[in-house]
Design brief:
By secondary structure, the chain is an alpha+beta fold. The chain is built from 4 helices and 7 strands. Strands 1-2-3-4-5-7-6 form a 7-stranded mixed sheet. The protein starts with a strand and ends in a 21-residue tail after the last strand.
């Protein structure tokens, strides 16, 4: 699998990605993810696509926080329904984390996930995301998670770190 940019040649393939019916309340439609990438351009929003053997299998949106604490925000992440449960989500998310680590702009990635989306939470925890301890009063049914990019700015493995003190959102 490889991480690729959105282009005029592949954006329609990305826009056609779908998730299972029960997942539609957890992630935006693919066309919405592409639109958000444009909307968040002032926050260095980037839409990535995941390609396997010449086929687009998923997409993700990452933006940068413009307020404190600065960091990456994994806004959206999806694997097309026909490619789920084959290890593609784990591989794709690892590619995103590796790319952000290479960028070396921030020391962490945050995300917000519905507590009911246990499949996504399992994936995030498997790759090292932990509960940040932050509770958004506007989203009481959601869990805020954080992943520290080891090796960035001298940070250690995420498992060895205390929870991040959140002050925004």
């Amino acid at each position: 699998m490889r991480l690729i940019s959105v282009t005029e040649d592949n954006w329609l393939d990305i826009a056609s990605l779908t998730v299972k019916e029960h997942q539609k309340g957890y992630v935006a439609p693919a066309i919405g993810i592409l639109a958000r990438g444009y909307v968040y351009r002032d926050c260095n929003g980037k839409v990535y696509a995941f390609e396997r053997d010449g086929v687009i299998v998923g997409t993700a949106l990452v933006r940068e926080f413009t307020d404190e604490p600065l960091g990456y925000d994994l806004q959206q992440f999806m694997i097309d329904q026909q490619y789920q449960n084959k290890g593609y989500g784990t591989e794709a998310l690892q590619l995103v984390l590796d790319e952000l680590r290479r960028e070396n702009h921030y020391d962490h990635v945050e995300l917000c996930v519905k507590k009911a989306d246990t499949e996504a939470i399992h994936l995030y925890e498997k790759l090292g995301f932990v509960d940040s301890g932050y509770v958004d009063e506007d989203l009481p049914d959601s869990l805020n998670m954080i992943y520290y990019l080891s090796g960035v700015n001298g940070r250690k493995n995420p498992v060895e770190l205390p929870f991040y003190p959140f002050t925004r959102r």
